[in-house]
Amino acid sequence: MTDQALRPAESATTFVDVERRIKAILIGSAGNLVEWYDFYAYTAFALYFAPAFFPASDPVVQQLNAAVLFAATFLMRPLGGWLFGYLADHFGRKLSLTVSVLCMCFGSLIIAVTPTYATIGFAAPAILALARVIEGLSLGGEYGASATYLSEVADAKHRGFYSSFQYVTLIGGQLTAIIVLLLLQKVFLTPEELKAWGWRIPFVIGALLAIFTAVMRRGLHETEAFEEAKKVVKPTGSILELLKYPRELLLVIGLTAGGTAAFYTFTTYMQTFVNQSVGLTADQTTTVIFGSLVFATILQPLYGALSDRIGRKPLLIFFGVAGTLATIPILTLLKDTKSPFIAFLLICAAWIFVAGYTSINAVVKAELFPTNVRALGVGVPYALTVSIFGGTAPAIALYFKTMGHESWFYYYLSGMIFLSLLIYATMRDTKHASAMHRHQ
């Protein structure tokens, strides 16, 4: 009778716990979506605002200038990973997540009100660069803090599934930017209005969404892992403490390099590639990229849940092998096609293996480090690697294109994935050898 009396209480407790976890994941993920929307609005609207900031007769040169600035902002991401990682490991995940989204709000607002090159000359791209630096700082911190938070609020049996929502919302941010672009293109503005002033609208929307998200994040509860760690070890958020884990730091760099190059190729660079290299119209480009990103979003939780059953390592190896072998054929066929539908299918084919990395890379990194340095351990080496290999991918691709050797980039990307494959094949499976239970 006693057992029967306890069961309803246990069920109620379990339900409350699940409800609390889901609420935390939704709020944390929503903030991640807003941050990435603000960041990707730059890419989605680059075709319209590049002439306003980078005057040149050749549209490829304009896009190259925009891509170089996109890559340059990634240099701030390691600093952001350190700053917000320190806040997350020293003061808590909640504070770090709230401050980072406010920084993104500020950067987006600057872009929205910056005058054009015709009005203030070289000061226009300089101010644009400042705004992107602020956004890069914010995004560098968002990744480590949100990956840590989502991993810590999830239960052990579903950690891969819950953590996959970081990339669901990350890709969702880009989808949201494209939806705004479609609405402005098809419903509200003419192409001339978009080029003249309409490109400012998405950045105003981003700033407002960031303020709303910051208010929501203030209501997040702190993770139990962080609260328990404070009882065991004094929070420091110290780089010196992080350096006690050199093997784990090198693992993050190695497993990220190929994955981040692939991710930014099939998200950020694809919009430029299918428009200028494949030759699709602006409308066709938007439709193809939108459809492929919807497909990619669906894959994330499916792969995340699969990793909870079979482990993280098999998915990483699948990405490494398939990416090494299929990248060159896919990009070659994509370049040669003139069909929007075939282009869509080829990009989706790439996502079938790229999702093997994106869906679980956050949880794999979080499972490498103990609680007291987890946000720093996830954020700093990841941001450094993304700055070198991810943010530069569009600029490298466009540089090869201006040289007349666009296909060189296909081999570069395939080689990067292969180098990461060597890491995947030799690292431990973090699902079975996780450090999530360790606090120091």
The biggest beta sheet is recorded as: none
**How many extended strands?**
0
Counting helices, strands and paired strands, the structural category is mainly alpha
Stretches where pLDDT is under 50 for at least 5 consecutive residues are 1-13
First-last Cα distance: 43 Å
Helix content class = over 70%
Shape: globular
- The H/E string reads HHHHHHHHHHHHHHHHHHHHH
Question: Using only CA atoms, what is the Rg?
Answer: 21 Å
Q: Strand-residue fraction?
A: under 5%
Estimate the mean pLDDT confidence: 82
Count of alpha and pi helical runs: 21
Provide the fold topology.
Blueprint: H1 2-44, H2 46-53, H3 59-73, H4 77-90, H5 93-113, H6 117-120, H7 123-153, H8 159-163, H9 165-188, H10 191-196, H11 201-217, H12 224-232, H13 239-242, H14 246-277, H15 282-310, H16 313-336, H17 340-358, H18 361-366, H19 374-390, H20 393-403, H21 408-426
Helix pairs in contact: 1-5, 1-7, 1-9, 1-11, 2-3, 3-7, 3-20, 4-5, 4-7, 4-19, 5-7, 5-11, 7-19, 9-15, 14-15, 14-16, 14-17, 14-19, 14-21, 15-17, 16-17, 16-21, 20-21
What's the gist of this structure?
With 440 residues, the protein is mainly alpha-helical. It is built from 21 helices and no strands.
What does this structure look like?
There is one protein chain. The protein has 440 residues and is mostly helical. Helix content is 81%, strand content 0%. The chain has 21 helices and no strands. Helix 16 packs antiparallel against helix 21. The longest helix has 43 residues, at 2-44.
